Each structure stands twice: as structure tokens, then as C-alpha cells.
Amino acid sequence: xxxxxxxxxxxxxxxxxxxxxxxxxxxxxxxxxxxxxxxxxxxxxxxxxxxxxxxxxxxxxxxxxxxxxxxxxxxxxxxxxxxxxxxxxxxxxxxxxxxxxxxxxxxxxxxxxxxxxxxxxxxxxxxxxxxxxxxxxxxxxxxxxxxxxxxxxxxxxxxxxxxxxxxxxxxxxxxxxxxxxxxxxxxxxxxxxxxxxxxxxxxxxxxxxxxxxxxxxxxxxxxxxxxxxxxxxxxxxxxxxxxxxxxxxxxxxxxxxxxxxxxxxxxxxxxxxxxxxxxxxxxxxxxxxxxxxxxxxxxxxxxxxxxxxxxxxxxxxxxxxxxxxxxxxxxxxxxxxxxxxxxxxxxx
Length: 348
Description:
By secondary structure, this protein is an alpha/beta fold. The chain contains 9 helices and 14 strands.
């Protein structure tokens, strides 16, 4: 195994030189990104470094983690970060050693995961990734900051997060989440396009369930420009829901590669909202440990509509669930229960 590469690179710009931001800088925080040399990592790192995720007065120390074979490429990414001279980047750690990579980390975006290969059954993928996230969970528990916020991006992200969180003994389980913000964003665009409004005008939509083709895009409470909005039910069932559920496959068909820029963007959106909160009168989608709401078995990592305030999320309660939506919910619940059964040996 290649000896890990670690670089602690002090940004040459002094704090005084950052005065042009017009705001007093906060103490730096450490942000870990796994799979950092990959496509999603590459699309994400530079935006985090620019301050887009955590704000223009929040310096960051980047912890870039990847496998030994990727370290040469990751070193190239480090050189590019240096060449950007980001004022907010106060240091960089590039490593294939998870103990080093997660040391004192405050935010972790877990992008790295084993992709599904030709002919691979979903159960095999779950087991292979289970080994990865079991190990990562132990390193996070032993070395990360006690207030770390984690979003799992690597698929199958819901159950990868379940496995990861099961290894955590000393950090609150609610700090471990999986990403369905990409599905939420996809739904938001489809609805805005249908209604002829801007994406920012669409509010009160959500994704329930698994980040998979069983996900449930929920729009019964949707507003557009702060007014209740409806769309044709036939379009919802025949076009909208299948488009959101299958969007990833369509992108692969078109690009011959999986979603990268949009996935990185959604991971960043997930953390930004978790830190800054949801807008008044709106909610977002996060896959979080179920507390039994909406009949979802406790402990499943399940996407719910949530509001966020002061860094804490809360499930939106009391949304009406029609028989149509209940049928879809039952399918995604069953899929996640089956996934939990498939990895039960990793949860003991």
C-alpha cells in the first residue's frame, strides 16, 4: 500500500489580507471530502474552497481523502487548489489514511463508494460498500470532532449511512444523514418548468424514502410564488415522478458517466441548509434516522421533509398522505427494510 500522502499547506494570505470580505472571519473549520480525486469531488472541492458552502467569512481547512491508487491525481487537485489562491483556504490535508483524514473534522461529505459494476446485484453492492462504511464509521467515531455533521453521498447512500451510523458510539446519531437533495433539486426544476416559473418560486415539495427509483417526490402542498399550485395528475404519474426517479439513469445514458456536477452541488446545498436553516414557510429533503413518523420503521435512514433551524433539523409533521402517495411510500419503505435485512450482519 502506498504510504499515505499528507500535506498541511498553510495559506500564504494573512488574515489581514482577507479584510476585503468586509466581515470578521470565524475560526477555521475542517471539511472532509472522500473520493476527493473523483468527478464529484472535483466538482465540489473548489466551490467549498471559495466559501460557497459555508459562507464568505468562514475559513476552511480541506481534508481530501481517497484511495492509495488515486493519490497522484489527488496531488494534482491540491496543486490546482493552491493555484486558485483561495483566500478562505487555511490549509489542505491530502491523504489515503482515514485516521489523518478525519482528525478533528467538523463536516464530512462522504462521496467515495464502490460503484455498481456490470451484472452486480444490489445485495452485493450493499455488502461491498458495507465494509467501506463500517471502517469509515469507526475512524469518524474515534477521530472526528464531536459535533461533526456528515452527509453520505456515495450510493446506496441511505443504507451506507445506516451502516456508518451503527459504528458511532460517541457522536449523536442525528449528525449522520444521507443525500436526497439532488432528487429534491431535480423535482424543483421539473415543476418550475411545468408551471413556467423560476425554480426559486417552487416551495413546499419533498422527497420521501430511498435515494433509488422507489423515491417518492411529494408535491401535494406545493406553492409557486407563494400561492398554492397544482399540476395535472396524469402528468405527475406518467411524466414527473418517473423523470425524477430515473433522472440519474438518463444522465448516464446521455453522458456515459454518472451525475457529477449536480451531485456535488446537491451535497453542498445539503450542508449549507443544515448550517443556515430553511427559509420561513418552506422545507427541504434530508435522509435522516427515522423516529417513526409517517409509519416509517424507527432507525431506517429515510428521506423526509424537514425544516432546519440553528443547525438542527425537524421532520415536518402532519402532511396529508393520499392513498396514491401511501402506495408509493409502502414500496420505498419495503425496499429500505429489505436493504437493512441484507446488511443485518454489519449492524450487530
